[in-house]
Amino acid sequence: MAAPSEAERTEALTEQQMKELEERFDPEVRFRPLPPLLGWTAAGALFILSCYHYYTAGFGIPQATTHRGLHLAFTLALTFVFFAAWGQPREPRSGLLRPLGLPLYDWLFAIAGAVTALYVPWIFNDLAFRVGNPLPIDVFMGTVLIVVMLEATRRAMGWPLPVIAILFIAYAYFGRSMPGVLAHPGASWDNIVNHLYLTSQGIYGTALGVISTYVFHFVLFGVLATRIGLGQLFIDLASALAGRYSGGPAKVSVLSSAMLGSISGSSIANTVTTGSLTIPAMIRIGYPRHFAAAVEAASSTGGQITPPVMGAVAFLMIEYLGVPLTTILTAALVPAFMHFFGVLVQVHLEARRRGLRGLTKDELPVAWVVFKAGWLTTLPLFVLVAVLLSGKTPYLAAFWGITSCLLVLVIQNLIRHDIRTALSESVRETWDGLVVGAKYSLSVTAAAALVGVVIGVVTLTGVGFKIAYMVTSIAAGWAQSVSASLAFLPFEVLSVTALTLLFTLIMTAVVCVLMGCGIPTTANYLIMIAVAAPILGLLGVEPLVAHFFVFYYGVLADITPPVALAAYAAAGIAGANAFKAGNTAFRLGMGKALVPFVFVFSPSLLLVVEGFSWTEFLLAGTGAMAGIWMLSAAFANWLFAPLRAYERALLIVAAILLVAPDLYATLVGVVLVAPVFLRQVPFIGGEAAAGKER
């Protein structure tokens, strides 16, 4: 894709440009073009897959292994149709070795994937007699399926996840050769395939179950809700509410990304959709290009932590934690708010420092006019949330949400056209929505099935607890050393136990971010709860808190260089330096980086934990907000006026103390902030030095 011209960078992107940009940075939507006959056939298969899931969501899901096998078979076959083996997709061409425009090896992979995925449901009645004593045909089928899944995931998402899966399989096989505590008796290939293929601990386990039972439906809902105009309504309402204030387009970006992300759950898609409008607007009023890109990227990654969808991870949590969805959504409220609060504070301070204006009245939509024109599009979201809160299953909520989207679609067409044209339009748009929704789910299914391999190895070898023992032992050693070095102080800063937990959290966070640099959030979360969550469990961290911690740091990878894909996509729109945009986006997302440490030490921040205390909640919440504000001011070099070097240093130290969920630390932080505030009080509400660059 050619770089946009100077003029294009300050104008909203066209739909085609948005599509090209998303494909450039997101391999999950890099579909190859298909010749007409194969294209229509594949679209028909996607439509059937969507109809199957829509029907089962409303009228009952089949036996688990059968349901998962059907979903996996369709998905694997279609993955080899839509994703090319190497490089960028090329124009289709048919030939003797390319029936219908598809290479023979792709047909072989597609057929092998479908057959081996359906094999386990086919022998399900005899499965109890084969588990632990697989037949040669079982081992052959399982081996083929593992190879097919590795290749499907490589095509749809790249090398990182397949490499991790191969390393885990190798660990299971070569257990006797592993060093130290990692050593285990090892397993034969027959036993490995038996565990991964024939039991519910591997490929056909919870990960694939959640994708086929919940996630697919919510991807479909998000696509349909966007097509009826709900996403555009969010953007217009955000413009009407926040656009008039200083640095208005940046604040519109934060609010619109929060609202749109609640139904999309994709960082890159959210970045491209809202960024195509907000980034050019931010540049026009004076934000630097890299900063405009960073604002959109940081805001858009917040969509994955925003209820009710949360990038599909909410539905994985209810399966692994065994708690109602309402518990997960409630727990997510305050941390999500903290993230967007942190981004909003920084864009405001940057706007005040640069003296940037808001949008004029002529540039802004009117809120009541916007809502009057688009209120009908909010119906599906209200229906979805109402059914969720009523205690019904998430897939039933998705069924009624999708049904509401289709109803709104028909009503919209009836308003615009005569009955005949309206029905024709509705049928065409329904077909298109169901096809696209299923198409977007292909990569996540392949990844979830392959993550089942990783999880299966963990349960087969017990490596999760071995890693947990290693990490906590290292953290305990560091804690003892630090405690000894601070023994000269007349008071104890942190106990050895607290320091051990702190160092464990830091190591876990680093691993989550590194894993997330090449793996989608859903897959990253699944791996980390198998490997990292037991580490926190050994130190007494509640399961809900541990799961939220690894989830938040997995999401952070989307704005963490060197593989900050959301930031790079935003930089493509802005015409900015990608690495600079990524670094700035990481800084803007500091709330997402700090708050997980706060809610581990003060679980009341998640609202629904055992022993919830309003005192602890208010102390932790207020301290976190104050700390994020002070750290933002230090980074922006602006509070109410420019800051001096020593004031920035004071604010950084004070921010750390304020974020720490401890009353004495908070009070010390307040004392450090006081002299900075006193010097800046005369500038409150003024424009002193605003807009002046140093």
UniProtKB/TrEMBL annotation:
Keyword list (alphabetical) reads: Cell inner membrane, Cell membrane, Membrane, Transmembrane, Transmembrane helix, Transport
Presence of the UniProt keyword 4Fe-4S in the record: no
**Main location per UniProt?**
membrane
Q: Where would you find the membrane-spanning parts of this chain?
A: 37-55, 67-86, 107-125, 131-150, 157-174, 203-225, 320-345, 365-389, 396-415, 440-460, 494-514, 526-553, 559-579, 591-612, 618-640, 652-678
Q: How does it sit in the membrane?
A: Multi-pass membrane protein
PANTHER family reported in the protein's UniProt record: BLL3936 PROTEIN
**Official protein name in the record:** TRAP transporter permease
Organism the protein comes from: Chelativorans salis
